[in-house]
Amino acid sequence: MSAGQIAALIAAGAFVVLVVLLAIPLLKLGRTLDEATIALRKAHENTDPLLLGANETITHVNAQLERVDGITANAQAMSGNVSALTSVFTATLGGPLVKVAAVSYGVNKALRARRKKKAGAAEGKHAPRAGRKKAKK
After folding, report:
1. Contact 117, 127 (CB under 8 A)
2. Which end of the chain is more exposed for a tag (fewer CB within 10 A), N or C?
3. Does the pLDDT at position 45 exceed 90?
4. Residues 121 and 127 sit within 8 Å (Cβ to Cβ)
5. How many whole angstroms separate alpha carbon 114 and alpha carbon 129?
6. pLDDT top residue among 94 and 130
7. How far apart are CA 62 and CA 68, in angstroms?
């Protein structure tokens, strides 16, 4: 054997060791890819019922939203009716009620003043009239 043949034999041995060292990670990577493929298959099989359930839920939510839209429209119409009724009440009865309240307040105040005056006269005191100033001496 010549030196060139020995060098070729060493290079071939190194190449075999390199191939073996590279084959181990490749085999492990192949197993990992197989497991990933199985996991994806299972996930794909389980997504169909999940998507069907989500579709049913969305359909139910849309039906409930249509109900809420109807309720909202009715509430809006009702608030408009209440507003109109309030303005009619204010226009027809608001002015006279304010006047009646003012008159009753005035009568009440006048009666209180009269009672005070009578109570002061009964005790022998003269109550000064409202609005008059005392005379200076």
Report:
1. yes
2. C
3. no
4. yes
5. 10
6. 94
7. 10
User: Got the DSSP string for 58-126?
Assistant: HHHHHHHHHHHHHHHHHHHHHHHHHHHHHHHHIIIIIHHHHHHHHHHHHHHHHHHHHHHHHHHHHTT-P
pLDDT value of position 88: 86
Is the pTM for the entire model greater than 0.70? no
The alpha carbon of residue 53 and the mean position of all alpha carbons in its chain are separated, in whole angstroms, by 26
Assess contact for 127 and 116: CB atoms under 8 A. yes
Evaluate whether 115 touches 109 at the Cβ level (below 8 Å): no
Token representation of residue 125: 């005191």
Tokens of 100: 């009646």
Alpha-carbon gap, residue 101 to 93, rounded angstroms: 12
Q: How far is the C-alpha of 66 from the C-alpha of 69, rounded, in Å? A: 5
Give the C-alpha separation, 65 to 58, whole Å: 10
